[in-house]
Amino acid sequence: MYLKKLALAGFKSFAEPVELEFSKGVSAIVGPNGSGKSNITDAIRWVLGEQSTKSLRGKKMEDVIFSGTEKKKPLNYAEVTLTLDNTSGFTLDNLDEIVITRRLFRSGESEYRMNQKNCKLKDIHELFMDTGLGKNGYSLISQGGIENIIGASPQELRGIVEEAVGIVNYKTKKQEAEKKLENTQNNLERLKDILEEIE
Ligand code: ATP
């Protein structure tokens, strides 16, 4: 799998729609200080579902929307679309291309789309779980990220290894199933109490 295309519109300093195409192998983004290089990696993290404004170097989520300059008015929404080549079958589904879009309006309303269909953030998390590509995946390493890995606790390191070997998805599903079992158990207890009261 590789990153094929990134389209930005109204995201941080990218007021006008911009499309960046990448080919297989190494790509480098170069430019003067403040030209928007880190905004591009922020956009990748954001479209993959990043919810932490701190990781996106802002104070509130609205800060990702173009806030205007002397010559340009602020915009009302930010949109990022990421296209991944999946011909190698990296994720478990059979799609040749995975296209993910995230849009956020100043009103706070937000949308996610996967291959042109509206979806939930959870669907995006599940698709990338165990691939290393999700918002917490190890394929996106920001400044200071390496030091964080070196200084990680044994539990944190175990989390990284578990993501790499692909068991996080099963662990999450197990936790969800355990929660459902617990809720069902509680409901059964309540039913038993009610039955005892009636009898
Ligand atoms: P450096 O090489 O110094 O790390 P960089 O190329 O990585 O710089 P970025 O940090 O990506 O640059 O971009 C910073 C620029 O983005 C600043 O000029 C900042 O004003 C602008 N910017 C950030 N958020 C917004 C926003 N919401 N609206 C408009 N401009 C924004």
From TrEMBL:
Contains large globular domains required for ATP hydrolysis at each terminus and a third globular domain forming a flexible hinge near the middle of the molecule. These domains are separated by coiled-coil structures. Required for chromosome condensation and partitioning. Homodimer. ATP binds at P32, N33, G34, S35, G36, K37, S38, N39. Belongs to the SMC family. It is found in: Cytoplasm. It comes from Eubacterium limosum. This is Chromosome partition protein Smc.
